Amino acid sequence: MKKTALLALCAIAPLALAAQAAAADLADAPIATAAEEPVTASEVVVQAGIAYRNRTEETAPVLEYGLDYFQRFEPLSAGDALKRVPSVAFLSDVLESDGVRLRGLDPAYTQILINGEKVPGAGSGSGAFGAGADGSFFVDRIPAELIERIEIVRSASANRSGDAVAGAINIVLRDAYALDGGFVRAGAMMFDDKRIRETVGGVWGGQVGPGRLLIGANLQGRRNPKLKTSLRYDEPNGTLDNSEVQTDTRNGTDYSVNASYQVPVAGGDLSLAGFFVRTDRTQDEDSIEYAKDIRTNANIQTINNNDVQIDQDSWSLTGKYKRDMLGGRTSVKLGYAGFKGKEDEFEDEIEYLRDAIPFPDGDRITRDKSRRDIDDTEVSAKLEHERDLSFGAELEFGLQYEKKERDTYFTEVPRNRYNLPQANPPAFGAYAPIAGGDSTFEQTRLDPYVMLSGKSGALKWEAGLRYETTDVSIEDRTSGDTYDADYKILLPSASVRYNLTASDQFYAATARTVRRPSFEYLSPATLEAELGDNDFIGVPTLKPETAWGLDVGYERRLGRAGVAGVNVFYRKVNDLLELYNTGDEGSEGDGTFVYSARNAGDGKVWGIEFDLSTPLTVIGLENTGVFLNYSWLDSDIDDEFGSRKFNSQSDYVLNVGFIQDLPTWGASFGVTYRKQGEAYSRVVGEEVTTTYGGDLEMFVEKRIGKDITIRLTGSNLLDASKKESFNKFTTIEDQLDRSFDEYELEREQAGPVFQLIARMAF
């Protein structure tokens, strides 16, 4: 505990000095923004100084972070990078950063974009561009090396898709104008189990013919060994019934390539871009369950071996042409994206102590095998036109088209169960689709919009309307049934930004947003053991969820590079989409249930977000940069048991740290500390409280000349743990009376990870 407090203090101490700097270190120099001209490869590899959050001049509230803001801590993925920005929480396993919970809300409330466009995802399971059962988007397989910058869009505008209740995260990949020259990257990572994985990649950008080209490739070894322990009681502070110890190792390799070419054509600009990511991953979970907590062979109740092999490919191709025409600026954009995912899973469980007869008589083995195949394609098109109006405003209007098609083929073999002491297991049967598992899903959207924007002195403003039409069709080939739905929603939005002084600005934004039911929520397929040991089945008649939101904030420039800001947000949500327990028994037997989704009334979400990113120039420490962001989050919704927060919303998210540059030595070092607050979830039959330990990361960097950087980083240095308590009940009445079926405590822990990475520019 003393070690934790001391290390955290090292990170926090410089912030007291930053408070003094805020009042004195003011200048009128322009704020850094995304590069309009290519930077040299040497500038990317050998950073001349400490990078801070960019202050954008967009009317809508947007926070912007360049890759150089994150890079010194060597994030592996976009998820790792997002851990350092305001209000981003995760409810993932330790060392995993997959489903983004912006403002602590379920991942389905956050719109994830790649270069401003949505990308198909897995929709279930995990892995590259994967998702949960709500159709949310996983970011833990987007390699950090592909990123140019990350934008946090707090409030919607008419020219962006409205499915962003909590906000949007736009991950902008490097394009042809991002780099001049090239660099290579190579290194190794050592994990807590002493295994070493490799990482290697490279990027090059330059003039090719009449245009500019950027190409990059990356190979990233991934590994995450964890230990889990579960204690199960009859009730809190009651009798211990059994315990379980589990090893959980995720091991795999990610491969990625990206390219961008930009060239002038016929008086306009043509941009072509594409990327491809492949994930090859194995998840190996092995567990032993004991009677009581006496971990001897005589007390073994079950031995379980559960393996999942994941193979996933994601790709995207886009083309955009923009030129002056028709009295303004017109752009046409076409896109094609795809996702193919395959998961092969098997689970073997040996049950002991089923009777009083000594092993092996009376004991049994249960064996299950299943496959999931998903094939997603998405075609998009945009026609947009901007023109200046006579009274100093700008008119923008357009039409956006999107068609998404998904084929799913979920199959399994009949359960293979036999009693011991039979020596040879019976042969597995043939794979066959599960109920609803052979299906197609089509969604067509046609969204016109119009937006006015303008500037008058210190005031900037925008206002617009977006009309989103959605047609959904689902065909269940296992039953021959089809389901159709359509939604038409008008989404107004408006934003203002006012520069009080050269260093101070105020903004406010309001927008109506929408959350559509995902394919998983609509599909009638029963997905066995989709939510832990519980099953999930969708409902084709669900309505979309809508929300009215307000963001009000203030930003202050601190010197040449620093910025501090505070934002207050509120969301009023109607027709909430939430998971619930149907009460039906699940496929795993006693104590498991079938979950589904429903429109669960209305709710409210609110919070305060503060962020600081600044050098300490005012006190003579121009080579010291400090970082702090803190978000206090809250919400309210009523369910069968009364008032609660939105399920699994963390109470707060804190990031704090510093970087010290040593120019004379050509070196630097830094520390960050992250902590997110407790999260609580309640449905019929189960209540879960989740807490996370703090995450401490450090780096040491040595620059060699103008072209080489060597960096050693350590993450999870406090051996962060995830703790969950489960209150389990059989009926609503039991839950109201606090008559427990089971009380479970689970702890998951992983050790530190060390990386040694070298980059060389050429």
TrEMBL record:
Domain TonB-dependent receptor plug, residue spans: 69-168
Subcellular location(s) per record: Cell outer membrane
Keywords: Cell outer membrane, Membrane, Receptor, Signal, TonB box
Domain of life: Bacteria
Chief place of localization: membrane
Family affiliation: Belongs to the TonB-dependent receptor family.
Record protein name field: TonB-dependent receptor
Organism from which the protein derives: Caulobacter zeae
